Amino acid sequence: MTLATQIHQRWLILYMNTPIFKKLNNHFDADPNAPDPKISLLGNHVVLSFFLNSFLWDNVSEGETGTLTFLNCLQYRLGKPDSDNYHRYRYYQSDVEYFDFYLVENSTWIEDFPIDKKIHNSSILNEFRSKLKHFVFFFRDNTFECVATGYSFGRVFNDASGRKEQVSNFIISSTSKDIYCRCSNCGKTIAKFTEDSMIPTFEECYKSGAVPVPNFGWLCSQNCANEYEEKYHIKFVRTKEGKVDYYYGEI
Asked: What is the pLDDT of residues 35-92, one digit of tens each?
């Protein structure tokens, strides 16, 4: 084995064992002063909410909240380090900026995830082992980490008609700035929002085969529900016949 080959092999070993940080918050940032991160649970998912940075982004209002929904979350934590002690983070790299949200590749989380972790659903490890990813968000006063199959970003904003919440393409509890209700998988228009309803009505959309998912939004068909499930490694509620249906035909 030549010296060049030995050096190359050692470089590969070093590279494969070095965590790689991929920044994910390219279109949003947390408030740098008081992000106030909070955690809530939604089935197999974990939702992280925090105040967005209205100083940096013109399309963000003061007090607007961002949400990150981590799909099929195995475990999570919110704790040390803070921004003053970032150099003590176990994967610290001087060229990785604080105050950002990252996917950590080549992570050794299965061996060294901090002991203050909270196990959300231990069965996820066996069911989704090959699809689990390590995410980390550095806030001013603490650090959030979790292991999940994926994530979805959303925001809570205020407009003339009141408080709205949008999670990715999903609309929760109200309408979005888009006047159309669209399939969260293929983008097909399902209905048009009005001030207090939608056309066709919720019931008409449901009976025509569109699939409403509570706390998420709409899919235009069972095929799109199946595709979305496969694409994002999540599981919807199904009937005994195998259809995605949270209302069991009772609407």
From this structure: 999 998 877 889 899 999 988 888 788 888 888 989 889 999 999 999 999 999 999 9
Give the list of residues 6+ apart from residue 213 with CB closer than 8 angstroms, or none.
170, 219, 225, 236, 244, 246
Could you tell me which of 166, 129, 162, 167 has the C-alpha nearest to residue 148? 129
> Which residue bears the tokens 């709205």?
164
Sign of dihedral through CA atoms 52, 46, 146, 234? Answer: negative
CB 232 within 8 A of CB 71: yes
CA distance 116 to 84: 20
Average pLDDT, the chain: 82
Domain ranges, ordered by start, for the chain: 3-152, 174-232
Question: Among 81, 72, 67, 75, which residue's Cα sits nearest to residue 38?
Answer: 67
Q: Give the contacts of 35 (CB within 8 A, at least 6 positions apart).
A: 50, 51, 139, 140
